[in-house]
Amino acid sequence: MGQIKWIDFQRLGDERGDLVALEIGMEKAVPFEIKRVYYIYRTAEGVSRGYHAHKKLKQVAICISGMCRMILDDGRRRDDVWLNNPTKGLLIESMTWREMHDFSDDCVLLVLASEHYDETDYIRDYQEFIKSRPQVAFVPYDEKFLEKSWEWLNDPELMELTLTKPFTREQQSEFYNSLAFRDDYKIWGIRLGGEKIGAVGLKKIAHGESAEYFGYIGDKSYWGKGISSSMFGFIVSFAKEQKLKRIYLEVSKSNNRAVSSYRKNGFSECEDRGDTIMMELHL
Ligand code: T46
Q: From 15's CA, which of 79, 82, 240, 250 has a CA 20 to 30 Å away?
């Protein structure tokens, strides 16, 4: 689910009971070098903790006794999960707002941390966190994006989800060289902070009428982070500026994630094409 990433630890139990070993050098399981371990226990009834984000620190939280509820919020979406299993670690990435609630009396929350304690790494004000989180930007689609898109759109999963047919380097440069001369096609690169993460645009632009929306996040680590809403927002305002009346799109029926995201952003089904469906949004 979105930003909720669990890490499973091996339970080395026998008839005497259970044991989980967390060893230095287990970076395959925990995606950072563990520099610090701390635990939170005997939290008083009704107390909530956290209410901050970290600029750099990454952590894995494991509830080794009892339970508590953790809210993770990356500024775009907010998820909450129960931690109640000593063999499951919750990965908390940097620049994620966290809150911990509903601690049981016997809750012991063990945290593996990627850095030593540093108060200057904390952002304790939610508005400041929102302002300092990486911004999504829609930027000119240049050769660097073109190169990235070769990698992205040759990934079998992305190819299927974006209904992309196999293409050659030659076709790719023809496409790129044609961009400057086309008024039926517009494409932008998507950047998050400094990273190039995808592309979005409109094709088959019939001026004053309609256009087909397309867009993808090529860097899968950014899937499920609510970036698609920014993509729609950007395209819808461009389409309105261009006085388009309708945007539509084609999506594979099996791409449930995309279909529900399109619905959430106001698109509705307008045609069944077998394996795919057409969805539209009147502006
Ligand atoms: C986090 C959540 C999950 C230290 O001196 N060294 C440490 O390593 C830690 C973690 C804390 N402290 C001091 C700082 C405060 O005076 O311990 C006191 C309590 O820390 P804080 O109010 O930040 O506790 P929580 O439960 O709100 O947050 C803690 C961690 O600080 C934080 O990094 O992600 O647990």
A: 82
